[in-house]
Amino acid sequence: MRKSNVYLNPIKNCYKVSADKELLQSLIEQGVELEFQCHFGSCRMCVVRLVNGQVYHHQVPGITDEEREEGYILLCSSKPRSEVLEIERIYP
Asked: Which domain holds residue 23?
């Protein structure tokens, strides 16, 4: 099973995540405290900005094509596609 390194900004902690799980699930399993509610992409609480790397992002109602083009993803509906990801938390 392929693993990816995820760097979570602004602290730049590194977490190993599996390519077959959504990022939200993998990070929560490692004790990362993240805001979430729905697990299927409609509440937008887990939106982050992808700074570096690639993900597979399911089509979900919680994010627009324009936001996706600007680098925003939802952790609950994204799986890693590259060996290294750098993501930035979005705080309200």
From this structure: 3-89
The per-residue pLDDT for range 3-47, each reduced to its tens digit, is: 888 988 877 889 999 999 999 999 999 999 888 888 878 888 999
What's the structural domain count of the chain?
1
For residues 49-86, b (16+ Cβ closer than 10 Å) or e, as one string?
Answer: ebeebebebeebebbeeeeeeeebbbbbbbbbeeeebb
Confidence of residue 92 (pLDDT cuts 50, 70, 90): low
For 58: left if phi > 0, alpha if psi spans -120 to 50, otherwise beta; the answer is beta
CATH of the domain at 51: 3.10.20.30
Residue 17's DSSP bridge partners are 4
